[in-house]
Amino acid sequence: MTHMSRWWDHAVGYEIYIRSFCDGDGDGVGDFRGLTSRLDHLAWLGIDVVWITPFYPSPMDDWGYDVADYTAVHPLFGDLDAVDSCVARAHELGMKVIIDLVPNHTSEQHEWFVRAKSGPDDPFRDHYIWAAPAPDGGPPNNWVGYFGGTTWTLDEASGQYYLHLFLPSQPDLNWRNPAVVDAFDDVLRFWLDRGVDGFRIDVAQALVKDEQLRSNPQIGPCDDSMFRWDQWNAFEHEHDILQPETVEIYRRWNRIAAEYDALLLGETYDLHRLDKLDRLVSGGDALHVGFWFGAMHMDWSATSIKSTFETPIRSISAGLGWAQNSHDEHRSVTRFGRGDLGRRRALAFCVLLMGLPGMPFLYQGEELGLESSELRPEDKLDPIGEDGDAASGRDATRTPIPWEPIDGFGFTTGTPWLPFGGRSAADTVEVQREDPTSWLHRHRRLIAVRAELEEIAHAPFEWVEPDRSVVAFRRHDVLFAANISDQPIDLDLDCTVLYRSGDAPMDSLTLDPDEGIIGRLAPSTDA
Ligand code: GLC
User: Fold this and answer.
1) 117 lies in a domain?
2) Do 32 and 55 meet the contact criterion of CB atoms below 8 Å apart?
């Protein structure tokens, strides 16, 4: 089979949560000036593509994922010139830049919604999804949102409800309205014309909703006091997300992207409806890549890791994106066991992600082995944490990056918008750069070794089973393996080690506990 090669086929991505990357003007919030000044760190690390989280005008109810203007920059982050300089600098350093596009919903402060809310006759009314109350006056259907609770808020003035899969201040756009579709064509072109290399598409599974807004089948108990994901999982999501018409939107965007050789990377957040996810990416004529989120919802066991890989690889034939961290989940070091144990495991897991078919992404600070920060309840800023507890929300993964072992950690000269939450000198980029055994150097070596293995880009994925506590697979003649047990394991394979995450000699075929390796299999080795 021949493959058209694309610039992202063998690329390693990196998520920049701009508020917390680097502050260039001392107001405590990361911005384009700060980000641009730190891009050489990413080039040095070996990153090919950076994804920058939303930087648009926004009331920040959901920290920028509530966009009030799709073609402008929030003054906190800079201005259009600052974006241009950042993109230009990244290109100089050989990196591509993709930006976050948030098409599922706007902020309630977007002028479209302000107009829409002004009354049922406004021409912008139909940019959003409105419905009459149920006969009892309650919400029009039984949909629950990603943050828990009903997806409907009553607009007292008109007596109609409007739809929001997230906060009430994030009304969902009506993707069945051609005017919305046209408006977004212009948004895409606006940024592509400025030189960005593509988009990470927020909530990519959800754009179009059922035309009749039918209730979802309920499969378990659900009430507002339950954890948000338990509420979500109490329903079969037949009518709210993953509607076939959403693919049509991406086909349209794919044609626009093709004019610019741009990447469409979807936040395809669903772990259950794989056939529908497959339609969004596998044809190559819609999204190019869709993230698989299994790695953020698994246990540290060989069985769990294998099924985290097997499930999407079996069902989704092309275009997977892989990440163990993001601005939405606890850091993997914390999830996998904390401290150096968690760090060893996260690095070993990173070795595996680097070998999977598709595009691996790191989240800022992952290369430093950062844990989730320790925050106090009063530090909570995220609208979703449990019981007002910052530690249970998304704040703990969103704290600023420690660059240098000085006051403000080289992130800011002011007061950071979120506390560092327990960072030490050893966590900083500067200290880790001095130490060739640091997490930073181990990640950098891993990325460098993978970069040389272009032959894996289109090679089939095949499991190798040297031991049931080892997760191992091959792509072409390259082996990726990690020991998931707490005992050393001898690999009975004929193989030359190219990279190892631990400290054993390079020619040893004994995998230490929580160690990952990349190796070249001898020609005779059968999987
Ligand atoms: C995505 C973002 C998340 C945001 C949500 C709503 O899941 O990653 O941070 O809250 O979309 O836009």
Assistant:
1) no
2) yes
Largest interatomic CA distance in the chain: 74
The tens digit of pLDDT for each residue in 266-290 reads: 999 999 999 999 999 988 899 999 9
Single residue among 426, 448, 470 that ends a domain in this structure = 448
Asked if 215 and 358 sit in the same domain, the reply is yes
Contact 235, 142 (CB under 8 A): yes
Count of structural domains, the chain: 2
Residue 496 confidence (pLDDT): 97
Q: How far is the CA of 102 from the centre of ligand 1 (A)?
A: 9
The reply to whether 415 and 285 lie within a common domain is yes
DSSP secondary structure string, 279-300? HHHTTSSS-SEEEE-GGGS--S
β-pair partners for 483 = 470
Q: Which of 52, 53, 65, 172 to mutate to test the pocket of ligand 1 (most atoms within 8 A of CB)?
A: 65
**Angle of the 178-193 helix axis to the 245-260 helix axis, nearest 10:** 20
Which residue range(s) make up the domain with 497?
461-521
Task: Choose the catalytic residue: 202, 267, 329, 366.
Answer: 202
Please check whether residue 338 is in contact with residue 380, taking contact to mean a CB–CB distance below 8 angstroms: no
Q: Are residues 197 and 331 in the same domain?
A: yes
Q: Is residue 121 part of a domain?
A: no
What letter does residue 34 receive in the DSSP assignment?
H
Ligand 1: lining residues by beta carbon, under 6 Å: 62, 65, 102, 166, 202-203, 267, 327-328
- Residue 514 maps to a domain: yes
- Whether residues 360 and 483 share a domain: the answer is no
Is 245 a residue of the active site?
A: no
| pTM flag (> 0.90) | yes
471 shares its domain with 438: no
Say what percent of the chain tops pLDDT 70.
97
**CA 462 / ligand 1 centre spacing (Å):** 34
Distance 61 CA to ligand 1 centre (A): 11
Return d(Cα 455, Cα 153) in angstroms, integer. Answer: 52
- Looking at the structure, do residues 311 and 442 belong to the same domain, yes or no? yes
Whether 259 is catalytic is yes
